[in-house]
Write a structure and sequence with these properties.
three-stranded antiparallel sheet, 5 helices, alpha+beta
Length: 170
């Protein structure tokens, strides 16, 4: 069973490629750390200087094979019908939330956010229909950004091939 750590939370979602694997029986033994569909992951530790990784957020929006989450990665699960999980994810990704989180965390050599630090921060909750509109807009923009990223990657790859052709032709 792969163990997801802070480095598995990326700007583009969850990177399920892990280099640490745990025995299958840990899924039952550590059930509260099992990743579920629609879970929101948030990094709870990060470097003090620069952007660091504290407050990095990703949502598990795919049906994924079993995985466990490391203790310094928080799992948020929306249980209230008045909260759209993708809206919550979108808000948690904002720089405003990240700044609030860092300000309310313990800072030493690293920034360490506790479960209470996260849960005690204010979250604006417009009516559900507005949350859903915001969530849809964010999903659409993320999909567009992913497509543009893939297009850019393909352009770079094609350019590399063209340069190789030119160099090797001489």
């Amino acid at each position: 069973v792969p163990l997801l750590r802070i480095q598995n939370i990326t700007d583009w979602g969850i990177n399920f490629n892990s280099d640490i694997f745990l025995p299958t029986n840990y899924l039952e033994k550590y059930a509260k750390f099992k990743l579920l569909n629609r879970d929101i992951l948030i990094s709870m530790t990060g470097a003090k200087e620069g952007t660091g990784s504290v407050g990095k957020v990703a949502i598990n929006d795919k049906e994924q094979e079993d995985a466990l989450v490391n203790q310094r990665v928080g799992i948020l699960r929306t249980k209230l019908k008045e909260i759209c999980d993708y809206y919550l994810y979108s808000y948690l990704k904002t720089e405003v939330f990240r700044i609030l989180l860092i300000r309310n965390s313990v800072i030493s050599v690293q920034v360490n956010a506790s479960e209470d630090d996260i849960l005690n921060l204010p979250i604006p909750l417009p009516p559900l229909y507005i949350q859903n509109q915001i969530a849809e807009e964010v999903k659409n923009r993320i999909e567009k950004a992913k497509k543009l990223k893939e297009e850019a990657k393909n352009i770079v790859e094609n350019a590399k091939k063209e340069v190789e052709k030119i160099i090797l032709a001489k």
